[in-house]
């Protein structure tokens, strides 16, 4: 008899949908609930490193991801001068292996749709606009009550409900994200022909001005500033602020500014981080992705680490013929050291940027090399 015959996935983001795919493919009866009313159809872009692409290939969506995104193998560094001068193009490490690009950018809503469609294709049952409001577990399973009044019983519950996870709090895990002191503006815009990779500009009106191509005709641009409350701005006001902050950046940024309209969708988020230090489970309820750990997007590893969680958890659950506490304890023991290094590196890079630490004191190349070496090995 398999260790797990039924599983509930709470949350339909990257880690949750990946877990659903892998468990359903193994013949486990999977239910996935997502609080949002439907798959999101607006949003910015996402940068996926090679180790994320490696898991996406295992999930059976790589061909669609490649067709929907924009692959590249280097990063550029520009100056905040009137020409947006390119001063360096640095080859990136193919952490997913030599047969995958180093990096791929794509629209976040497209990735979300591809993953959820794949989950449904392999047999997972999806329910939107629904979330747990109570759980009660015993040695044999977990009883879950949902916001729509329905209920169910499962062998395993996976909390993939994000950085401010209800599941984590419900388990009594008193770990909350902490601010890294910066906020990021993101906007999805048409791609200028000269944008063929991520370029970063350090300094100027913001800490970082960057962009990432997400398709033949699209890219997302982002500006990183000191964190502040931007919640009271209307959409048109957000666009005005973004345009003002971007005014000192040139090269492709001139086209980015020209493409903005008062209706352009703008996303603002704070840099936060946390790591649940001990076991990532209580009984038969376990955390994955941002529910267990989160990091600033300074090295573009957030989704990748969630995908790796899903791959490791599914491998252990599917390979076990009996359920006991050691099964889920082994998952965290395997994932915690690696995720912790990634979070610590992301926070350190954010701190160096925030404090404008000079290159002589901030070993950015060494930090990036250590992370790349780590994630090149499969989780």
Task: Supply database-style keywords.
alpha+beta; 379 residues; single chain; six-stranded mixed β-sheet; 30% strand; FAD/NAD(P)-binding domain; globular; 10 helices
Query: Span from first to last CA?
Result: 27 Å
Question: Can you tell me the overall shape?
Answer: globular
CATH superfamily of the largest domain, by name, is FAD/NAD(P)-binding domain
Q: So how many helices?
A: 10
Largest sheet strand order? 6-5-14-15-16-13-17-20
- How much helix, percentage-wise, in residues? 25-40%
CATH class of the largest domain: Alpha Beta
Named at the architecture level, the CATH assignment of the largest domain is: 3-Layer(bba) Sandwich
Main beta-sheet annotation: 8 strands, mixed
From the 3D structure, determine the CATH topology of the largest domain. Answer: FAD/NAD(P)-binding domain
- Please count the beta strands (DSSP E, at least 2 residues each): 20
Show unreliable segments.
none
Radius of gyration: 21 Å
Q: In sequence order, what are the helices and strands, one letter per element?
A: EHEEHHEEEEHEEEEEHEEEEHHEEEEHHH
Number of domains: 2
